[in-house]
Amino acid sequence: MSTAEDERAPGTLGLLRANRSLRALFTARVVSYAGDSLSLVALMLYVASTTGQGLAVALLLLVGDFVPSLLGPVTGAISDRFDLRRVMIVCEVVQGGLMLAIALALPPLPLLLVLVGVRGVAGQVFKPASRSAIPAMVGERDLETANSAIGFGSHCAEAFGPLAAAALLPFIGIQGVLLVDAGTFLFSAVVLLALAPLPPATEPGTGPGGLLAMAKVGLGYILRTRAVRIISLGFCAVVMFNGVDDVALVLLAKDTLRSGDSSVGLLLGAVGIGLLVGYALLTRYGARLAMPTLLVGGFLVSSAGNFLTGLAWSVTAAFVVQAVRGLGIAGMDVASSTMLARMVPAGMLGRVFGNLYGAIGVAAAASYVGGGLLLDATNAPVTLMIAGGGGVLFTLLVAFSLPRALRGHIDPKPQPDAGAGPSPEKPA
C-alpha cells in the first residue's frame, strides 16, 4: 500500500534530475532568457547613442514587446498546429539568426525595428509552446513544481542578465554582447534537440486547419468557457491596473520620498527579489496549495502591495511592501499556468496560453499609457493607490465568481477547425 510520503511529489531538483525533457526545457529557457536580457540592455544603449532620442528607445521596446502581443491568437495556434519541439527549436534558431544579423550589421533604426519586431514575434510563439510542452513532460501531480521551477529559472535569467551585460560591455562592447545573445539562442536550440517529439494533440474538434481558423476557434473557446475566461480576464485586469508601478516607483522615490537614484534601483529590484523567493517557495510547497486559492491570493497580494506602497512613509517601507508583492506575482503565474494546464484540452492549450500572454502584453501597454496620464494629473502615491485599489476590486470579482465556475466547469465543444469533424462534449 502506498503511503502519503510515497505519493508526495518529488522536489524540484529530484524532478529535474529524473526528467530529461523538463531539464532540457529548463536549461534552454534559462540560457535563452538570459541572452534576451543581455541584448535588451545592449540594444537600448545602441539606439540611445546613435539617435539620442528617448522616443527611439520607446519605439524599440514597443516593437519588441507590444506589437508581437497583438498576434497572440495566431502565435498560440502555431503551438497547437505543429510539433512543439520543432516549434521551439525553429523559434530559437530564428531569434539567433536575427540577433546575429543585428550584431554584424548594426543597422539603422528603421531596419533595426523591423528585425527586432520579427524576433519579438518568434519569441511570442516560443512562450505558449514552452508552457504547453510542460504537461506533456510531467505527471499531473508535478505540474506545480515544474511550473515553479521554470518560472524561477526564467526570472533568475531575466534578473541577472542586465548585471551580466554591465560586466561584459566594458570588455566586448555592444556588438560583442549582441553576438553572445545570438549564441545563447543557438545553444538553446541545440539543448532542445534532447526533447522527444511533441506532436500536436488530437483532441476532438481541434484537428488541423488554417492558422486563422484555429485562432478563431481558440478565441471562441476562451469566450465560451467561463472558468478559463475568468482566470484570463482576472490576470489581465490585475496587470492593466498595476503595470504602471515601474514608472510610479521612480517618481515615488525621487519626488515623494526625496531619495536618490540608488533608491530607485532598490525599489525597482524589490519585486524581483520577491519573485525569486516566491518561485523558490513554490517549488518546495506549491504542490500542497490549492491553486484557485493561490491564484486569488496572488492577485490580492500583487494589487494590495501597490496600494500600500502609495501609503509608504519611507524607501524601506516601500521596499518591503514591493518585495512581498513579488511573492504574489509568482503565485499568479504558477497558479494560472497550472490551472489552465489541467482544465484546457491539450489540443487547445497553445491557443489559450498564446491569447493570455498576448492579452497580458496589451494590458501592460494600456497600463503604461493610462498610468502615465494619471501620474501627470496627480502624483505617484495617488496613482499607486488607484492602481492597487482597482486590482483589489477585480480580485474580489474573481474570488466570488471563480469557485462557482470551477464547480460547473465542463469543457465545451470547440468549434471544429477546418478539416475536423464534429465531436461530442467531453468533461474536462
Automatic annotation (TrEMBL):
GO terms for molecular function: transmembrane transporter activity. CDD domains: MFS_MefA_like. Residues 213-428 form the Major facilitator superfamily (MFS) profile domain. The chain crosses the membrane at residues 30-48, 55-78, 98-122, 178-199, 230-252, 264-282, 294-313, 319-340, 352-370, 382-402. The keyword Phosphoprotein does not apply. The keyword Glycosyltransferase does not apply. Keywords: Cell membrane, Membrane, Transmembrane, Transmembrane helix, Transport. One of its GO terms (cellular component) is plasma membrane. Gene3D superfamilies: MFS general substrate transporter like domains (1.20.1250.20). It is a multi-pass membrane protein. It is found in: Cell membrane. Residues 409-428 are annotated as: Disordered. This is MFS transporter.
